[in-house]
Amino acid sequence: MRTKRKSHYRDLRDYIIITIAMLMGSVGLVLFFLPNEITTGGITGIASILYWGFQIPVSLTFFAMNAVLMMLALRILGWKFCVKTIYAVILFTVFTSILQYYVGDLHLLADQKFMALIVGSAFLGISVGLGLSAGGSTGGSDVIAAMVHKYKDVSLGHIILFCDLIIITSSYLVLKDWEKVLYGYCFLFICSFCVDQVVNTMRRSVQFFIISDKYDVIGKAINEFVPRGCTVFDGHGFYSGKKVQALFVIAKKSESNMIFHLIDDIDPNAFVSQSSVIGVFGEGFDQFRARNKQRKQEEKEFIRRALEESEAAKAKAAGAV
After folding, report:
1. pLDDT by residue (tens digit) across 93-130?
2. Partners of 233 in the beta sheet?
3. How far apart are CA 272 and CA 217, in angstroms?
């Protein structure tokens, strides 16, 4: 029951984050990029180019092109991948339409285009980062990259960058100004930096080594109130020779204060070491990234043979004894 309730809470949190993310992305596009004719990558960039060239509403192009992509993605990638992206696409379309209707004539930072680029890129980068950390996206080039990556062992980042560079360069056909195209290239770097910062912050994890005579009480409290799993290591003090038990805990950075409070309430004299970790994969954290199917099959076959050889060696050693 608790696991199911926690799952519902996580889903609700993800949808709230996606809602905030899409609102921020719409603000960045409508208030800073469109009036200053700064193009972006992905379907948003294509929609912007059509808006400048033919006055076709951004929201209409954005929704229509993503609808086609989503139909293909549902067939290739499955429903689970697409559901949050579909929600994000609908929200971004609605927010963009509302903002264009009510504040479409507002031209912020009209005489400071580079500042408009930085602020708008930050809004869009944070928007994409929040969406990705919650399991969704605004569709476009990242969906294309996911579909290509399913069949070809090509970097997702390279596919997205290639698509975005083509879209931004093609904006010259409408804008007739290489300076504005260069602003688009700058957008790629600023936006990607913001995306990395947001995603890394949302997924940042820490590890604890806790040495205490009350390790069992601390472990149970962490299991109950954080909740995170704990591993117990047996050891002894080199100088004192005293036997000790150490708890090893991996948790999200946002959970570290709770762990410190629990330790302080149970054993203020406990020895605690905390450090940051680059990546954590497994239950309760990130999933292992997909690999090339052929390579994955070769790895499975190698592991199977290695396990069989190990078992045979153990059986032979036991027989010899």
Report:
1. 888 888 888 876 676 776 788 888 888 888 888 888 88
2. 246
3. 15
- The CATH number of the structural domain formed by 205-277 is 3.30.70.120
**Type of residue found at 87:** Y
Q: Taking the domains of the chain in order of start, what are their residue ranges?
A: 2-202, 205-277
Reported pTM: 0.64
- Distance, in Å, from the CA atom of 57 to the CA atom of 60, rounded to the nearest integer, reads 5
Angle 215-225/256-266 helices, nearest 10 degrees? Answer: 140
141-151 and 156-170 are packed helices; what angle lies between their axes, rounded to 10 degrees?
140
Question: What is residue 253's DSSP assignment?
Answer: G
Please name the residues in contact with 261: beta carbons below 8 A apart, sequence gap of 6 or more: none
SS3 118: helix
Please state, in angstroms and rounded to a whole number, the distance separating the CA atoms of residues 137 and 150.
18
Residue/partner pairs of 73-76 with CB below 8 Å, 24 or more apart: 73/143, 73/146, 73/147, 76/147, 76/150
C-alpha–C-alpha distance, residues 181 and 162, integer Å:
15
Per-residue pLDDT at 180: 77
User: At what angle are helices 178-203 and 113-133 packed, to 10 degrees?
Assistant: 40
Question: DSSP states of 21-63 as a string?
Answer: HHHHHHHIIIIIITTTT---SHHHHHHHHHHHHH---HHHHHH
pLDDT digits (tens, 9 = 90+) for 35-68: 887 778 777 788 888 888 788 887 788 888 878 7
- What is the DSSP secondary structure assignment for residue 67, as one 8-state letter? H
